[in-house]
């Protein structure tokens, strides 16, 4: 994938909001201490092993606050990093660098944390054909950014929202009356509105699997199945459609889940419970103005 991104309008708005919420009426500490003729330089220091992500966002934040800031990335998104790695360098007015610092770090640390978590899960299943998927369990307003970080970590995006895939879950089935009714309605909707979107059904028991297969869906989601139940279900489905495993997936269970032969494994923890990667911005006065 192209690791240099083009910012869409929604992402631009997220960045602008993040800057506004931090600066407010102004960075009063920096404004009080420094004038425009004081220049500084610095580097982003990685303090733990992981996967770097968010470099484009950091550069964008600095340039949104002050277009004259010089930013140099030493890596590309998705690169492995270790303690002591200098991810990027920055130079410009001290006021601009200090005002940008926290917002820039927030994006880089969170995105790097997600990419790192994603890579750690993938490492455990790389000997299988299973693909790691993210979920919609993201920070409200940051979904595009969280999911981009998953890609940098080597994972794949599931649906972006409610608009790009039919996912029939337990409450849909309960209200529709049956899996068949729900699938039929989705197929009719798809034809009527001339849209291309896959249909996935969440099942909670082996009894629901045959009805789902007979309805001719694209993907069956095995929700909170034990590994033993999953293994049996994979054999029952017998490649008649793709299979996603979901629920109760963690670093201790993902290997055995992948080895059952499922096609996809979705993990909410890589975005909803992520630990930020430890990165700091080390600044000093610039000697050559």
Could you explain how this protein is built, in words?
The protein has about 290 residues and is an alpha/beta fold. The chain is about 45% helix and about 20% strand. It has 11 helices and 12 strands. The chain has helices spanning about 10-25, 30-35, 55-65, 95-125, 145-150, 170-175, 180-190, 205-215, 225-235, 255-260, 270, and strands at about 40-45, 50, 70-75, 80, 85-95, 130-135, 165-170, 200-205, 220-225, 240-245, 265, 280-285. The strands form 3 sheets. It has a 6-stranded parallel β-sheet. Strands 3-5-1-12 form a 4-stranded antiparallel β-sheet, with helices on one face. Helix 1 packs across helix 4 (about 95-125). The model has no long low-confidence stretch (mean pLDDT about 95).
Task: Give the secondary structure arrangement, pairings included.
Elements: H1 9-23, H2 28-33, E1 39-46, E2 50-51, H3 55-65, E3 70-73, E4 80-81, E5 86-93, H4 94-125, E6 131-133, H5 143-152, E7 166-168, H6 170-176, H7 179-192, E8 199-203, H8 207-214, E9 219-223, H9 227-237, E10 242-246, H10 254-258, E11 264-266, H11 269-272, E12 279-285
Parallel strand pairs: 6-11, 7-8, 8-9, 9-10, 10-11
Antiparallel strand pairs: 1-5, 1-12, 2-4, 3-5
Helix pairs in contact: 1-4, 3-4, 4-5
Distance between the termini: 38 Å
Mean pLDDT: 96
Q: How large, in whole angstroms, is the Cα Rg?
A: 23 Å
Sheet/helix structural class = alpha/beta
> How would you describe the oligomerization state of the chains in this entry?
single chain
- Count of helical segments? 11
- Largest beta-sheet characterization: 6 strands, parallel
């Amino acid at each position: 994938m192209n690791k240099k991104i083009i910012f869409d309008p929604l992402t631009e708005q997220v960045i602008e909001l993040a800057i506004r919420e931090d600066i407010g009426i102004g960075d009063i500490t920096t404004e009080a201490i420094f004038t425009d003729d004081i220049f500084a330089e610095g580097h982003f220091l990685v303090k733990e092993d992981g996967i770097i992500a968010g470099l484009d966002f950091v550069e964008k934040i600095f340039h949104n606050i002050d277009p004259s800031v010089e930013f140099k990335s030493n890596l590309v998104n998705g690169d492995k990093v270790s303690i002591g790695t200098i991810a990027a360098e920055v130079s410009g007015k001290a006021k601009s660098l200090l005002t940008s610092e926290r917002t820039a770090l927030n994006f880089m640390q969170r995105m790097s944390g997600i990419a790192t978590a994603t890579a750690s899960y993938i490492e455990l299943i790389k000997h299988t054909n299973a693909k790691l998927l993210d979920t919609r369990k993201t920070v409200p307003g940051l979904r595009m950014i969280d999911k981009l970080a998953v890609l940098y970590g080597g994972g794949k995006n599931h649906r972006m929202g409610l608009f790009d895939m039919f996912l029939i879950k337990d409450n849909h089935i309960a209200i529709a009356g049956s899996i068949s009714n729900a699938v039929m309605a989705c197929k009719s909707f798809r034809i009527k509105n001339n849209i291309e979107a896959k249909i996935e059904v969440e099942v909670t028991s082996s009894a629901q699997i045959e009805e789902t297969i007979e309805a001719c869906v694209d993907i069956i989601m095995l929700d909170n199945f034990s590994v033993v139940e999953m293994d049996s279900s994979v054999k029952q489905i017998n490649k008649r459609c793709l299979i996603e495993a979901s629920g109760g997936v963690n670093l201790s269970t993902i290997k055995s889940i992948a080895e059952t032969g499922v096609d996809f494994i979705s993990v909410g923890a890589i975005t909803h419970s992520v630990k930020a990667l430890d990165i700091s911005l080390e600044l000093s006065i610039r000697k050559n103005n």
